[in-house]
# Entry
Amino acid sequence: MAKKSVYFFGGGKADGKASMKNLLGGKGANLAEMASLKIPVPAGFTITTEMCTAYYENKGQLPKQLTAEVKKAMVKVEQVMKKKFGDLKNPLLLSVRSGARMSMPGMMDTVLNIGLCSKTLPGLIEKSGDARFAYDSYRRLIMMYADVVMEKAAGLEPADGEGIRLKLEHAMEKVKKAKGVTEDTALSADELKDLCEEFKAIIKKNIGKAFPDDPEEQLWGGIKAVFQSWNGKRAISYRRIEGIPHDWGTAVNVQAMVFGNLGETSATGVAFTRDPATGINKFYGEWLVNAQGEDVVAGIRTPSPLNEATKNESNKHLKSLEKEWPKVYKQLAGIRDKLEDHYRDMQDIEFTIEEGILYMLQTRTGKRTGMAAVRMAVDMAESKMINKNTAIMRVKPEQLDELLHPMIDPAAEKLVAPIAKGLPAGPGGGVGQAVFTSEAANEWAAKGLKVILVRNETSPEDVEGMRSAVAILTAMGGMTSHAALVARGWGKCCIVGCGAVRIDAKAKQFTVGETVVKEGDWISLNGTTGKVYTGKLPVLPADPDKNKWYSTLMKWADAMRQINVRTNAESPADAAQAVKFGAEGIGLARTEHMFFDSARIIFVREMIVADNEADRRKAVMKLLDFQKKDFVGIFKAMAGKPVTVRLLDPPLHEFVGSLLEDRKELTALADHCGLPAAKVEDRIKSLHEFNPMLGHRGCRLGIAYPEITEMQVRAIMSAAAELSKKKVKVLPEIMAPLVGTKAELAHQRAIIDRVAAEVQKEYKTKVKYMVGTMIEVPRAALTADEIAEVAEFFSFGTNDLTQMTFGYSRDDVGSFLPTYLAQNILPKDPFEVLDQGGVGQLVDMAVRKGRSTHPGLKCGICGEHGGEPSSVKFCHRVGLNYVSCSPFRVPIARFAAAQAAIETPRKEAKGKGKGKAKNAKKK
Ligand code: ADP
Ligand code: MG
Ligand code: MG
# Structure
């Protein structure tokens, strides 16, 4: 017997439940759950995702068992709704809705009013006593069906502007214009009736097929179209961006229609149980009288606010549901409480009011901005709705990025007047050049330009362009429009419903009154207030410390965390910023950046072109004081926190290569050194390497030119000694780069220890220091047990380790990596997200091997991956002591580490490790 493929819900009962998302999709599972909770939901049934998979395995044939099961479920729906599908007197109409496991806003298409045809129309008119309503429903069905089923699902791809939906919309616009009205609701029954006939003619002419005049054909056409839309271009593109597997499939929900377009006592709406932009605990939403389905979302009319407390600039003149229909509002608010209490999370809901009676059509966990996510998590934990661990797990580490995000400088903003104001759909500041199509956004962004995508409204086709843009501005749509939902999900600056903006797509410009903004002109958006400015306003870094929810959540997270978070920084200013963000040390201070300083580069070059040790030593020592000053600054900024200093790493050619093109500089250097220019030139040319990344760099420099190591160690240690004497605590960790054999590190270590001893003697003070190495050459990982015998710490340089493990030149991956990612040869860019299966094995092995000969060996990571959440979690799991990342990633790393500790707690840390103990004390 085949598995059950159809799940019924309605009349206070349901076959399915919320936990069956994989089988029923999110929408179907939650409709079932709401029905069981006795929340009013129109009856219906869900066809499982397994049927979608079967459909594709069957090469686009619907499995046979389905017909019988659908028939049986349909009878139940008819019984509950007291109507019959295809009936001449009392026809049941249906919606056919998709629903994947994860909510994919707007990606899959819904067809409403299925079952209306020449046979059933008279019955609907008779029964409702409202011909206008019947034809309004009919014209909607025809439009949706033509678009979704006859065009998109059939794989037709008309040129831009040639799509059937647009053609039908134009026909409707024409009727409205002729009548001199702007709202759909102003059209009469007769006008809509004529329009339906015109629609059908347009469809016949353009698609070459007639709109089906049979309820059964419409129903099965709809079901197939949902399955088909799973593999539509835009759905695939969304899944790629969001990392949703392509083989999950979608479920189909077939549900009795309820009508928000049945006159002045009917309405439709969308709401969030809390404000999705700010997280404030207020019921938040929009509704429209005499409207159906997605009218609210589509930005056709400006929707009204749900209640008085959440009115905004653009809708404050409109009547709230709370004022207009208090009884229905109260019932809805009661459902809001019930749903939040049941799901223990913010819900995004859809409802329809049919002649004063409320129906719920959807509930799902609502998307939210990072700011809102943090605030809701903390509020819910503090009110005991969820526990602290759940609160921590509720926020994606990446979402914190938004709180750390720049905003338009308020001082500068005060001085200029906004040209327009829209709805603040995604917070933060966005400054970029205006573009008007998704394609342009992609093209410009690929060239490294910052663009703001300006559209009337966005649709799923725009998703990739929205991704490329730094911010999004739309003329239409409300806080629940497509643009708002998508931008909010990504934490992107976004302003919607900016009615004053008039877009002329042909001329590639928009106007606001007299102001003209052309493609490429700079504009600035304040996504927190909805204000739009011309020009390029300065942006300020964020100040998350002022946000008390953020501080609270981070406190909870730090108490859970079992590894340390450090930063990669070489300037005292960066170090100080990182400490503000919670850095507990420096994991990587690169010394070469210090060499480029204009006051000292000449001595660096003198050192490089010297052709004997004596001259080189003389030049090197001129750098000593500079370097010492650098380290004093850093050590002071870190005030007793450990600082890992890496000895000189890059190939020397990098410091002098440019002189070959710059004769003046070359002559100056020759004069400075008292050498003939030709000799200097020869020397520089001799430094050329075919493959500098694999050439004379890292510890290979310190071994060939030990005086460089000597000078650097002297600078580090004398800075430390000097500060120690002044009672400033200093913890230097000296790190040799690019070690591949034990002998290399032993060689460098001998110099380091010797010079360190000399300095301590000179200063007559003891300074604690450590010596270690970067693990960035595969051989170092393979022989980590040997290397650990002469190392006190390992720091994984996963940028080079990735480069050398894959054999991809970091500087050249641009030529093939995009192809690899597009074709899924690689799931992710390994330089961004640590390749756990390959490079990660080397890390894991090196930690274990290292600690086998050197128990307690301190291990950390200092590659770019140290701030990427999934990589941080990996570092926690393989037992690293810390991760190190750029200052702005520090909070994200702290947070990811806390989540890792919740997901896979480390045993050894229990009771004594950091965090755990602190946490226990507080409870
Ligand atoms: P999406 O996944 O885009 O949210 P939905 O399936 O929720 O698509 O449907 C689109 C619109 O149609 C929504 O506004 C929804 O509330 C409305 N709708 C869906 N089913 C019904 C129904 N049975 N009666 C009335 N409106 C419906
Ligand atoms: Mg939709
Ligand atoms: Mg919906």
